[in-house]
Amino acid sequence: MSESSASALPPGRRSRQPFIHPENLSLDSSGFSSPPVNFLQELPSYQSIARRRTTILSRDKQSGTLLKPTDSYSSQLEGGITENLNSQSIRKYALNISEKRRLRNIQETQMKYLSEWDQWKRYSSKSWKRFIGKAREMTTHLELWREDIRSIEGKFGTGIQSYFSFLRFLVLLNLVIFLIIFMLVLLPVLLTKYNITNSTFVLIPSKDTDVQCTVYPISSSGLIYFYSYVIDLLSGTGFLEETCLFYGHYTIDGVKFQNFTYDLPLAYLLSTIAYLALSLLWIVKRSVEGFKINLIRSEEHFQSYCNKIFAGWDFCITNRGMADLKHSSLRYELRADLEEERIRQKIAERTTEETIRIYSLRLFLNCIVLAVLAACFYAIYRATIFSQEHMKKEIDKMVFGENLLILYLPSIVITLANFITPMIFAKIIHYEDYSPGFEIRLTILRCVFMRLATICVLVFTLGSKITSCDNYSCELCGYNQKLYPCWETQVGQEMYKLMIFDLIIILAVTLFVDFPRKHISSPWPSNGTNSLVTSPFCCSLIMFYFIALAGAHKRVVVQLREQLSLESHDKRYLIQKLTEAQKDMKNRLDRQ
Q1: Which residue numbers delimit the TMC domain (predicted)?
Q2: pTM of the entire structure?
Q3: Are 379 and 514 members of one domain?
């Protein structure tokens, strides 16, 4: 500031000296006008300021605030206002009310000197950002199971909450996949089949496919047993095999509308590629977001304690129930972090002998895990081979239970493997001496690998049977066309049976195990005092009534049996008397 400008200031008001950044300082005889000295950049205070400035710049860049560092604090703010400073970015600064008002006045003053086009652009940009913020706030209230998942987070922590959030993501992903398949494949077929639109099926010739490979004969029996419909419903055969649920229902025909021909085989292929690509991109996007969060949290272990204690509370919470949930969530996270730190300290204090012993034990336990996986895979392979070989027999030659058991044998083995192996993995992981977080991740990894590998083994076994031609030639179609006219339908039926059996098991466990156990072991209030009725007493009481009820039913059955016996004797006696009366009447008529 020059002398003339300084003298022009009103009396009693100090002139504001510009802030000199450490990079511009220099200890030269002529003042601070020479280039900066390097040793000033080595001071701890300068290093701290540089780190904080880098953090602030990166945070402002992410939040959309474009404030460039200048030589003075006021010029820094005013320069930012002339570029992209809006009302929301002003609120984000840690300034007092008077300073924010001054900045807003400066912004309104500068708006007057802008052209109408620039004013409209700035106003529309503010309105659009405000609309996006309101829309995001509204969409948070439309999330599926939002309150339930927040309740789970408050009671069991963010780890369990992330699991249920992932399940919600799978539900949405399956819904999107269904919409893609329905719009691109099912809807044109249904519109043409039921004559909703003016469209017809047209044959699309294929040069590389033999005619015999496109024929899919559906066996039509005359009079069949009733239990065959039950088997068809549970296994996907019979009347379900002819529906749009399976691949064999679709033909190589196209759908001809008024102005164009819809290539149905191409649509089937492209829709499959589309939902697989969408699933991959969506999963990768979620994984990258989680990876960023984990990378930030893993930079410093003790930083998480400060974040949770000093910045973990949400002061916008006004509901007492939500406050309790948030409080329990923070408490659970702190306990988990302390347990992780204790395990980490224990690992750091291990000796060489303990390290060798632990790694040897882990190697042995991993060999046991591999042996369990190999046994499960071999059992699935043998069950699939046995089921496919016995399915060639006619249904009439087998009884209902035997037929259903053979059809569901691969699904039963896969479900048992998926049910037993997680319990084995949970027992083994306790002896490997990992941290709690790594134990959960490793157990989930093993279980997911088990579930995916069982499906791969099932498909591999089916593929080996489909492509095996004993006395028949596979050169025509590339597979055993006589036994498997549509091998895609056969694979789909196996997936259908696996899904149905999993659904039956889940419903049975929920209704007959979890639901009774929840109500049996829950506390029952009585006259203002909470008396906990223990499970053994409840089980004994229920068994007593079950035994008494069974005895009553037995007595009723015995009484009904005796009554039926007496009625049969009465009927026999009446028939005998009627016969004798008829004989007497006949003799009298003969005498006359």
Answers
A1: 486-535
A2: 0.59
A3: yes
